[in-house]
Amino acid sequence: MNICVVALGKIGLPLAVQFASKGHRVIGTDVNEKVVELVNAGTEPFPGEFDLDVKLKEVVGSGLLTATTDTAAAVAESEAVVVVVPLFVDAEGVPDFGWMDAATRDIARGLRPGTLVSYETTLPVGTTRGRWAPMLAEGSGLTAGEDFHLVFSPERVLTGRVFADLRRYPKLVGGIDEASAAHGVEFYEAVLDFDERPDLTRANGVWDLGSAEGSEMAKLAETTYRDVNIGLANQFARYADKAGIDVKAVIEACNTQPFSHIHQPGIAVGGHCIPIYPRMYLWNDPEATVVRAAREANAAMPSYAVDLLAAAYGDLTGVEVLVLGAAYRGGVKETAFSGVFGTVAALAERGAVPYVSDPMYTAEELSALGLTPHTGQPVTAAVLQADHAEYRDLAAADLPEVRVLVDGRRTTDPARWEGVRRVVIGG
Question: Is 146 within 8 Å of 176 (Cβ atoms)?
Answer without folding.
Answer: no
